[in-house]
């Protein structure tokens, strides 16, 4: 999928998950709650930034939530680039699930939790609709790519949004998203744009 407005031939997108937080460590759903990086997460961001800086990025774009923005800041400091914030790259809004552990959600909403685990549609508890997440994630990544057509753009985002964004860019159906491995904290995936085939996934869940 492309925007159709800009020649993106040769563009490389690095989709980078934020560093660890205390809620990650506790298997607690963060969603769009603005949870900070913990000490481990800050160290992960610095380590990953040292590697990503060697890719000579031309632009950095980040979710406006602090765990992603502070991860992106580590790379911005090394490269001298500005990390541009885009709320479309936020994590999925999980409604009443935000702040709960997986065990608590499974106890309170077993059917909903099982549907989420299997990648099936969720329509309860105020959770953001899959089609809305796909749309905004796609728009956010295309806008990021258009900041440096033909160059390398690093996008700091969230584990769930990264999976949906990758699927949206590749035109994959919603049903396959559950089969995409979740990025580890501060790991990244790579998409490249080829004129004849469009976006292709060329690396997944890398750290070094």
TrEMBL record:
A single MF term (Gene Ontology): phosphoglycerate mutase activity
Entry-linked Pfam families: His_Phos_1
One GO location term (cellular component): cytoplasm
Enzyme class: isomerase
Active site per the UniProt annotation: 18, 91
CDD domains for this protein: HP_PGM_like
EC number per UniProt: 5.4.2.12
InterPro entries, A to Z: His_Pase_superF_clade-1, His_PPase_superfam, PGM_Phosphatase
Alphabetical keyword list: Isomerase
Amino acids binding substrate: 17-24, 67
Name of the molecule in the record: Putative phosphoglycerate mutase
Organism for this UniProt entry: Allocatelliglobosispora scoriae
